[in-house]
Structure of dihydropteroate synthase:
Amino acid sequence: MEFNSVADLRSLSLLYPILLAIFRYIVSHPLIAQTNLKLADLVINYVHKIGPLHVGGSSPVRVMGILNASPESFYKKSVKKGTQIAQTVLKMEQDGADFVDIGGMSTAPYLSTIIPEKHEIKRVLDAIKQIRQVSDIPLSVDTCRANVAKEALASGVQILNDISGLKYDKQMASVVERYSPSLILCAYGKNTIRGNLLEQTKILLKQSLHIARRAGVENQNIALDPAVGFFRNKAKGKFYTKITSDWLARDLDVIANLSSLKMGQPILISVSNKSFIGRIIESKDPEDRLFGSLTAEAIATINGADIIRTHNVGRTKTVISLAQKMLKKTGKGL
């Protein structure tokens, strides 16, 4: 559209409030209102960016490949070192990964996996170096320790995935303020959680959003993770939220109600090979959980997930594509 005169611009300025009034009428219509969507839910997801990529809204569901540089990780097939790292990332990229999430220390709540920070830093930086020799795929660092995040972000990583939602390390907010990464904020609480666990999950996520905003990160660069697998009755590790009710029921409730947890933000879901799948299929071996993982990822996609974090990039990409096509046909979740 060209504007050839001041009069044209004046006409546009007169048209704007009319268009705005029409838009407000549409979103307040009963047919829209009965979906329980807010104005922010209709607009904000269309402008989100995690790293360099648009996420949410009309964007495709994104796939985040998991790269573990931590030998203590629960899923041994995901552990890579040396030249395996570059080869693995190239394969993930070929299979359709949009991001790669690097972990230098396992945070599985049922394992005792704390290692010295210097070891975690070395693992993460070595992995970044290997990856950057072969690929420029957007990278995320999976850590809740500020010094590790600082080193990774200083090395060019664009995304911080903190399973404590910026709450574990008091210095993390300062690191975030300095480097302004995109954020994946996981629901996490240091105190025992009771009552309606969906509502409590939203409260925990709102707390993390507040920390992020105070550190200068804009809403459009934040995704939320409802922490499937991290709400437990008991654990060996530090990185979990204690609850008194059934953790399996809680995780299934989260997956069934993802859209209600968004609060105007994109949702990342990480269910790949996790314990709730093992409990349902009655197998303690993570290598038995492939089909359960893919099923859960497809359901999560239909129910509103915007990013799927997975060990199985190629297969996950396939089920996401199928789920999205089915969703377009049916127009509703499960």
Confidence is low (pLDDT under 50) at residues 1-13, 31-46.
